[in-house]
Amino acid sequence: MDEFLQSLIRGLGTGSIYSLLALGFVIIYKSTQVISFAQPAFMLAGAVLVSYLSPAVSFVGAVLVAAVVIAVLALGVERTVLRPMVGKPVFVVAIITIGVDVVVRVVTNAFIGLDVRQVGDPWGLNTVSFLGAEVQQRYLVMIATTAVVTALLFLFFRYSRIGLAMRAVAYDQEVALAQGISVGSVFALSWALAGGLAALAGVFVATGAGVDQQLWIVALKALPAIILGGLESLGGAVVGGLAVGIVESLFGTYQNDFAPWLGPNFALVAPYALMLLVLLVRPYGLFGKREVERL
Amino acid sequence: MKGPTSIKGRQDLYTSYGQDMGFLNTRPKRAWSGGLVVVALILPFMITDDLLQLLATGFVAAIGAIGLNIVTGYAGQVSLGHAFFLAIGAYTAAALSGPETGRVIGFGITSLPIWLLASGLVAALFGVLVAPVAVRLRGLYLAIVTLGLVFLGEHVFREWTSLTGGPGVGRPAAVPELFGVRLDQDSALFTAAQQLYLLMFVLLVIFGVLARNLVRSRVGRAFAAVRDRDLAASVIGVDLTRYKVLAFAVSSFYAGVAGALLFVVNGFFDPGSFSLLLSVQYIAMVLIGGAGTISGAIMGALFITLLPRITRELPTVLPFISGDATGVFTVFQLEAVLYGVLIIVFLIVEPRGLFGIWVRVRNYWRTWPFSY
Questions:
Q1: In order of start, what are the domains of chain B with their CATH numbers?
Q2: Would the CB atoms of B141 and A276 count as touching at under 8 Å?
C-alpha cells in the first residue's frame, strides 16, 4: 500500500509538470490553432536560467525572474517568427516552431555545457511522511504549485477582461476582431503565458536531478497529455497531464512484476501507448471538440 | 476526339490533356533530365570516394524523402513517423541478409532485390496497420500520433536486442550483393564507393520515375484532392479510406526501401539512429526541397545530406567559427542551428522550397531578356 501511495504521489507530481506544459500547448492552440513544438526549448531555457540566477537572487526569486524572461522570449519569438505566418497552413507553422525549438535549444545547450547544472532548489531528494508513506517533498510542492497556477489561470480566463478577450479569440477570430479585440496581442500573450508555464515546468523537472542537455525530452510527454485531454480543453490538459504522470509512474513501479515482456523502461513510452488506445476510441480526446465538417 | 499531336512550328503547344500530363512534357525538361543523368553517371570517375559515399547516402535519403512527400506533400497526411518506417525497413533488410551470429538473428539471404523488396513490403504492411488511425484523425492529431509511433518504435528496437544488437552496439547493415557480386567490396573495375554510388543512383532513378508516374495518374489526382479538401474529395467520389491507406502504404514502402539502403554505405547502425530527429530531418528535406514535387524532394534530400559537409568547410573561410568542439562557436552548433534557421527561412520566404527557386530562375530565363 505504501508503495502504491508513493508511486501515486510521484505520478501526480510529475503529472503536474506535464499539466503545466500541456496548459501552455493548449493555450497556444486555442488562440492560434497551432501546436508549438518550441515548448521543450523554452522549458530547458527556463531551467538553465534558474540555475544561473538562483545563487544570486534566491530560488524563488530566480524562478519568478526566469518565468518572466522566458515569457518575454516566447513573446519575441511569436512577434518575429510566427507573426509573418498568420493565415498559412497550420502544419507549416507547426514545423516552423520545430525550427525555433532547435535554434533555442542549441543556444541554451551552449550555456549548459557537458556537466549537470543544479537549480538550487531547497528540497533536493528530501522526503516527508505523508499518510504513512515516505514521499519526496518536491512532488508535494509540484502538486501544490500546479493547483495554485491552474486556479489562477482559471480565474484569469473567467473574470479578467484580457481573459475574456482570449476566450473570444479562441471562439471566433473574425468576430473578436470586429468587436475591437486586438487578436495580435492575444496571440503574443498566449505565447508569453505558455513560455512562462514552460519555464516553471522546467524548474520542477530539474529539481532533484539537475539540468542537462537531455532535459527537453520530458516536455514531449505533454503531447500525449494534450491529445488525451483534447486539444481545445484547458481542463483536459490538466487531467491529461496528471493521467500521463500516473500511468508512467504506476508502470514504472508494477510493470516489472505484471508484464515483464514489455521490456524494462516501458514506463517511459507508456503514455504514448495510452494515447493510441484512447484515440482509437475517441478521436478527439476525452474533452476535445468534435469538428463540424462542411464544405 | 483526338486532335493533331503537334502543330508544325509550335512544338510547345499542347493539344491534349495527355500531352500536358506527359512524363517529360517540355523540351527543356527532357534536356535537363538527360543532362543531369549524364553528369551523375560521369561523376563517380571525377570525384573522390568520400564525396561519392556522401552522394550515395543523399540518393538513398532522396528515396525516403520522396516517400514522405507522397503521404505529406501529395496526400496531405502529416507524418512525423517516417523514422519508424525507415527503421522497419532497415531491420528487415539487415535481418534477412545478415549472417546468423550468436548475438543477432540473420537469415543469410544476401541477394539485393529480394531483401530490398521484402523490407519495402514489411514497412508497407506497418503503414497499412497505422493508416486506420490516420483515417479517423486529422491534421495535428495525426502528427502527434505518428510522433508517438517513433517513441514506441524506439523502445521496441532498444529492447529487442536479438534483432537490433542493442543501443550503442548495433548490428551490421544489409549485405548488398547483386548477381553474386558484393557491391560493398572493391572489384576489378570499380571501387566500392563507385559501385554503391551507381547502385543508389540507379535505384533513385527507378523509384523517382515510379513515384512521378504514380502522382500524375488517377491515384495522384485523388491524393491531391484529399489534401486540398478531404470532404470535397469524398463528395466527388474519392474513397477517403482507400486513398489514405494507399498513401500510407506507398510512403512506407519507400521509407522501408530507403531504410534498408541507408546504412549500407556506412555498414553499421544502432537503434539510436531512428529518433525523432531523423523524422524531423526528412520533414526538413521535403519542406526545404518543396512539398508536393518529386524533384524537390530529391533536391532537399541532397541539400540536407550535404549540409554537414558544407558547414565543415566553413572554418577555413570564416575564422571566427572553430573547427573542433572546443571553441566558443563551433561548427557542430552552427550545423544544428542551421537546420532550424533553414526550415524557418524557407517556410517564411520561399514556401515552395528549392523547387520554387528553380521555377523562378527558369521563368526568368525562359523570357530573357524580356523579363516583364
A1: 47-366 (1.10.3470)
A2: no
